[in-house]
Amino acid sequence: MSKQESHDQKLIPFIPEGDFYFSKGVEAYRKKKFDISLKWFGKAIEAKPNNPLYQCQMSIVYTEIGSYHLANQLLEDVLASHGEEYVDCYYLLANNCAHLGLLQDAKAYAQTYVEEAPDGDFSEEANSLLTVLSIDEEEEQEDEWAFDKEDDILMYQETVFYHLDREEWTKALALLEEMIAIFPDFSQARHEYAYALYFAGEKEEAIALEEEYVHHHPDALFGIMNLAIFYYYQEDSDKLEPITNTLVNIYPMHEQQKLRLAMTLSQIGFVEEAYQRYQSLSKDIVKNHASFYRWYSACCYGLGKIERAYQIWEEGCRKHDILSKQTPPWLMSSTFYHG
C-alpha cells in the first residue's frame, strides 16, 4: 500500500454538527451580518431542533432586525420546554413586546423575570423597563394620556399583518373587527378584512363587501386589487378582465402599495408585469414579508425561471419558519396560472 493510500484511509470526513453552525452564526452576528447569521442558526436548529440556546440566540437576531413576532415565537417555544432553565427569555419577551407597543404584556414579562431572577444578567434592564412602563401608566391615569391615533393604528397593523402573512385568517379577522370599530375611517382595515374573510371561506360576503366599497370609491386601489384576486379564484373572467387592464397600468409611489400590487399581479397570473414590479422594490421593505417570497417565487416559476423560483422560496424558508412548513405555491393547485 502506498503512503498516499495509507494517508487517505486515515482521513476522517468532517460533518458539521449543530455547535459548528452555531459558532458560525455567532461570528456573523458579531459582525452584524444578520442575514448570514440567521442562515447559520437555522442550520444549527435543523441539526439540533431541541437546543434552547440556538433558539434564544436566533431570537436575538430577529429582534435586531425588527422581526419581533418571530423572535417571540422562538422564545415562547423555549419557555414551554425549558422555562426554569432559561428565565432570560422573560426579559427578551418583555423587550420585544415593548417594541411592539404591547405594554401590558411587556410589563408582565418583565415582572416575571425580576421575580424569577432578581440578580439575573438582565435584572438592571428589566427594572429600568418596568420604571419606564410605570411612568407611562401613571401619565395615562393622571392626564388621560393615550397613544396618538396613528401610533395605535400602526400597532394594530403590525399584529394584523403578522397574522395575514402567516395566513391565520381567524386571528386577523378578530383584530380587524376591532380596528374597524375603533378607526371607522381607516379604509385599509376594511380591505384587509375582506381579504381575510375571503380566504377564511366567506367568499360571497367578502366579494359583496368589496364590490360595494369600490362602487362608492372607484379609485380605491386596495379594493380593486382584492376584487382582482377574488374574481381570479372565482374564475369570473368577465369581471376580472377590466380590473386587470386597470392594474397593469398603475404604478404606485408608496413602497407598500408597490409590494401589494406586485403580489396581486403574481397571484392572478400576470407574471411578466409582476416581475417588473418586483425588480423595483426596496429590499428593506420586503425582507420581513413571508408573502413576498411566496409570490415572488411563484412569479419566477410562472415565467419559467424554475431555478430562481426555488432559490427565492428556499431563501424565504430560511428567513420565515412558516414558509418551511408550506408547499411552494405552484405545487398547491393544478389550476395555478391557468390564465
UniProtKB/TrEMBL annotation:
InterPro entries: TPR-like_helical_dom_sf, TPR_rpt. Signal peptide: none annotated. Pfam families: TPR_16 (PF13432), TPR_19 (PF14559). It comes from the Bacteria. TPR repeats lie at residues 18-51. Keywords: TPR repeat. Transmembrane segments: none annotated. This is Uncharacterized protein. It comes from Gracilibacillus halophilus YIM-C55.5.
